[in-house]
Structure formats: structure tokens, C-alpha cells
Amino acid sequence: MIQHLVSAIGGIAMLGVISVCLFFVVFGVAVLWAFCLKKPFLTSMSSLPLEDETGADTKGANHHG
Amino acid sequence: MNEATQTRDVPPANIETFKYDNRIVRAFAIATVIWGIVGMSAGLLCAVQLFFPGANLDLQFVTFGRLRPVHTNAVIFAFVGNGMFMGIYYSLQRLCKARMFSDKLSWLNFWGWNAIIVAAAITLPLGLTTSKEYAELEWPIKIAIAVIWVAFTINLLGTVVKRREKHIYVAIWFYIATALTVAILHIVNGLEVPVTMWKGYSIYAGVQDALVQWWYGHNAVAFFLTTPYLGMMYYFLPKAANRPVFSYRLSIIHFWALIFIYIWAGPHHLLYTALPDWAQSLGMVFSIMLVAPSWGGMLNGLLTLRGAWDKVRQDPMLKFMVVAVTAYGMATIEGPTLAIKSINSLSHYTDWTIAHVHTGALGWNGFLSFSVLYYLFPRLYNTKLWSTKLANYHFWIALLGMMFYIVPMYWAGITEGLMWKQFTKDGFLQYPNFLETVVQIIPMYELRAVGGTLYIIGVWIMAFNLWKTARSGVFEPDTVAHAAPLSAQAHTAEGKNPWGHRVLEGKPMLLAALALVAVLIGGLIEIIPMFVIKANVPTISSVKPYSPLELLGRDIYIREGCLGCHSQMIRPFRSETERYGEYSKAGEFVYDHPFLWGSKRIGPDLHRVGGKYPDAWHYNHLDDPRSTSPGSIMPRYSWLLSQTLDTTSLPARISALRRVGVPYPAGYEQIALGELKLQAAKVCTNLQTGLIKANSDKEIIAVIAYLQRLGTDIKAAPVAPIAPVAPEAPTPVQKTAQLNTPNQP
Q1: Cystine design at B24: which of B106, B191, B287, B359 (Cβ 3.0–4.6 Å)?
Q2: Cβ of B502 and A44 within 8 Å?
Q3: What does pTM read for this prediction?
Q4: CATH topology of domain B15-475+498-527
């Protein structure tokens, strides 16, 4: 079945063309998606590592020696 | 918990109090330092053996061939592996505002993983190896790895599911992609048919085995050495710089593009080999495209430091981070460059690859690990770093060490590549003796060892500094934190858009599933055609299975790690066919479980060595390489002359190979030992003509038989298909064996 499918796509050379097209579709969707995101959301996401210890009770190790 | 934490304000009613587990982070951090020293020291001993072969003290357990996988496994899976877990266990809890899903799973992960490393450190020097690079551990250990990895994955996903932070930060996406992809790579590449407790045969053969192996090998670099460390970069770099990542948009594109493309690029390890051309081209194209997301990530990291470069001058942790990210950028522009076929024709099998790999390993993984260690220890012990000055010394020594390592290796690689291809004006090879090209680069090997020594000295300095830091503070086993549970958090307007990327960030399982699909597509498109289209591996009728003696010789070749220095793949270049003979064909490897093409030529290619030298030459060469090849850097293998060949598992080996498709006739096990003795006696007779008296039951006889068989099948006349065994008549396997045991003086 798989052999038939793979053989029927017009030669193995087509595989490379399909693969590159596939990549550009995925890449394009990711870019489009990323640029549709709103600024406040991006700001809140990017600040997550900086906020993660605001609720933590640490004795002052935030100063790097 | 210390008193200070107990006297904090009481949180509001809907706020939960919980603790981050620091014990597990500390355990992984200590293991990172210890295994770093062990793994790098093993590497240094390997490096020294390349200009001083006697450094193995003639012990078989520490010869270059057996020690190299100890070094690579220790650095990749022990040093970087523990470093990865250290970073993940620290950052994941804080980004999820939750303790790890299960403390039991955390400790199973720690002890299980480190027990596996100890098992590797014992079995690899004993020669118990599959020979597949970065996947050398034999099947019982492979199963243990799968179990421990599943425990880690459950713990990771469980923590994400029970998190108190609504959004899943990009670092966690990288962690999830790592967990899922490594599991798939490990299982698919590791499929073996067990023969004995410590021996198995890959279910794949030859060119298919090569493709699966390098699909694994390349993506082990991608998803073990890169994606978890990118996650750590996205967490620890903003923390250290105290500013958010330069572009969160870019990080989203970086993630999806990287995981989608990386998996396709594996075939660039097999350019100009017997792999079908379409697969090679696919690997090359996707490797070049890989520059885009990789550099996007690197620039995102470096630009995070915009306006904070003054901190880099003062903070050694940031210094290490900057070099790590820069090394990532250098390695990821060089990798695609080396994947261009014309450049690869020069660089492949040379030390250029070693330089490239170490730019990534020493620069990216090493420096990022050091950076995170310098960040974590003061925090885990509630104190300051004991000595910033010492950390700065470490930085400069390590940087110098890295330069002393990679620059000579680039020099050596380009020198080798050019010398191998150099012709005289009359059209002959300028350096027909491979040894000339080796002797030329020995000074570079010496310099490399200096670089390695400096780098290790730096790690010792760091270990001392971290130890003093720990001594100067008080370890905080748990960090108390407060946060509202996810269910109590109000949904914001932005969360209502069903199509935004935030939908994925709120649904970890959907995110994981999509990441898995992105990763699987490339692998499936490359691998499935290789198995279902017969034209990809043209058969050669004269190619027959190994005789019993050759088979055992091949397994000794694997045990000794000969493929660490000798390839078995002649590329279709005039410079190679002139030097070695006819180029290698895919159909010649159909019974090779596993394939032994190798990836580095410290010594010459051996694919057509069969029949090139008399048996006595091989005997003397293996006993003392310098007796036949003055100046050789190959270690002595004198134990092969005295160790008795173990034939007890021969029937099991034949049976296992038959199960994976090698056409040994039914019942062949019963006569195999007789055939083996017959062929061994012939090798001994040949040796006598060289005035060597050898016992036919010694390991060296099997190795000679195997070496003499290499690459000779296509010279033999085509033979009829294998018929059922008739004990009175020699089988085609016997005939082939007889054909390939030369009568040489």
C-alpha cells in the first residue's frame, strides 16, 4: 500500500519538491501566526521568566555574586 | 525551610502555597560537574593516544576505539544529559509555578539515568557495543534508557498539566519537543534482535541502517544537545540579563521552524555514500534552510542583551552565556556549510568535522552548562558566588582551551582533505601512502591535547569555586512559593480567541501532539521510501552473507571500535578510487547488521582491503602496527593473538541474523562451527607461508578472515541463490569463504 503510494507520486524526485513546499507552508503559517499575536500578550509571555520568582520566598539569592 | 521563609506574609485565601524541589536540581548539578570532568578526561586520553599510541599502556580496555564511545557518551549523555535535567528541573517548576509532578519520578530519573551512565562506563571499555555512534549501548541498557526517559517525560508533562501559570513559556515547548523526539529516535534506531545478554544485531542492514542511524545521530544532536539547551537559553538568559527575551515572536518562529526542519537534515552525514541521491539532496537542502531558524534563535539570544552589555563585562555567568550563544551561531552556520555536497567532499572523514562538533560541544553545551551552574549554586545555597575572580579565570582558560582545540582541528581537517585529493601533474596521487597524511597532522593533535587540558583545568577551577560557594552558604532544599491555582485564574479577553497561538500554550497535550507531528513528517518521508522502494538498494547477486569465521571477526572488529578510525565507504571520487579501489555500492551492504561505514578516517578506508595484503601482513600489523607501517598511530592489538575465539554463541548469532533477513539456510547453525574451523585452518596455512605459527582458535584468525573478505564480493563471480543445506556439499557461504581466503605468500 505504502509502496504503491510512494511510487505513484511521479518519481522519487518529486519528494524533494513536495518536502520543500511543505516546509515553506509550515514556516509561512508559523510566521503568520506569530505576527498575528497582540503586543500585550507577547509582552506578558516574554516576561514570564522574570516573574517566576515573585511568589517565591527566597532569602536574597537574586544578587549574583 | 529556613526561618525567614516561615515568617513571610500569609497569602490570600485563593492563593496556594507550595515548594520548589531544589534537592533534585542540586543532584543533577553535582552530577553535571562530576561527569563533565570524567567525560572530558576520557576525551583527553583519546586525544593523547593519537600522537602517543602507547598511552593506552597496551590495555585493551582503554584503546582509542573503545575509549572514544566512552568519551562521547559521557560528554553527551552524562555531562550534557545531567546539565539538561538540571536546567529543566529548575526552570520548569518556576515557569509552571508548581513542584515537579512526582518526587519519586524525579529521583527515578536521577538515579536511573546515572546508573545507566555507570553501566555505559563499564560495558563500553569491555567492548560491549552496538557500534552505532551515540547509540553504542547494548540492548538491556537501551531498554533501561527508554524506561527512564518515559519516567522523565511523564514527570515533565505531569508538571505542565498541574501548573499554576496559565501560559506555557517557549522554554517549555523546547523541553516537550526534546522529551517526545528523543524517545522516538531512541526506540526506532535501537531496534535490535538480541543474541546474548550483551549482544544484539540491528534489525536494519547496510544503507537502511545508515539512514536510520544518521536520522538518529543528527537528531540526537538536535534534540538532545540543542533544543533543551535552547529552552535553557530562553529561561536563564533573560533571568541573568534581567530583561525579557528580545522577540517572543521570533522565539515562536524559531521553535516551529527548527523542530520541523532539523529532522530532515540527517542524510547530510551520508553525502556521496551509497545512500540514494534523492535522500542526500533532501538532507543538503534542509540543512541549508536550517540556518534561518538557528540564526533567528541566536540573534534572539544576543539581542536580549541589548543595553545590558555592561553586565556582560561584570558577570562571568553572562560572559559564558554570550560565548555559548555565539558558538551556537558559529556551529549552526558551519553545519549547513559542511552539508553542501562540494564542501562535504573535502571535509567529510577529516578532523574538520571534529572541530565543528567541538565548537558546539565545548562552546554551546559546555559554556551554557557552566553559565547555568554559576547561576544556580549561589541560589541553591542562598549565598553569593565564592569567587567572581576565579569564575573569570575559568572563562578565559576555557575560551583559550576551546581555541587551542578547534583551530588546530580545522587546520588538520583541511590539510588531510587536501592531501587525500592531491594529484601530481602526471595524474598520480601525490600522497599514495595514507600514513603520510597522518604524520603531517600529528603536531595538530598535540596542540589539540593542550587545548583539551586547558579546558579541563577550567572545569576543575569551576568545581572548586562551586564547592567553596556551597560551603559558604546554607542549602535550601525547598523554595516556598505562592500562586493561585489555574482554575481560580480569570480568563482574559485575549484568551477567547480560538485561533491564536495562545490556544496551544493553554493546551500542553495539543502542543505536544503538534510538535510530534512536525517532527515525524520529515523522518517518515525520508525513511519510508528507503524501506519500500527496492530500487533504492540495488541488489548484487555475488554478495553473500559472511561465513561463520568472518562473522565472528566482524563482531571483534565492532568490539574493538575499529570503525572509530577506519571507514568502510569509498566515495565515487577519483582520489578515492585511485587510493582504495572501486567505489562502494549500496548492494554490497545488504547483510551488514549493523552497517560499519564509520564517520572519520584517522586510518585509511578498509572497504576494499580484502586481498590487498597477505594474511601475515595483517597478523604482524595487528600485533604491532609500527612493524609494518613505521610512524603509524594505531594501537597494538596483541591480545587478539592470545585470546581464544569464543564460538559458543555462534549458532545464536546466525539464528539472530536469519531473523533480521540474512539468508543463512535452515539448519546452518549445525554445520557453522565445522566451516569456521575449516576456514581458520586455511588462514593458519596462509600464515605459515609468512613464517608465522598461529593457533587457529585465536581471535586474530577471525579478524584476518573478516578483513580479507571486505569488499571482495563484487570481484567474485555471481553465485546461484542459496539452497537448503546439504551437509556433504559446501554451501554458497562456504564457497564464498573459500573464494575470499587468499593464498598469499
Answers
A1: B106
A2: no
A3: 0.90
A4: Cytochrome C Oxidase; Chain A (1.20.210)
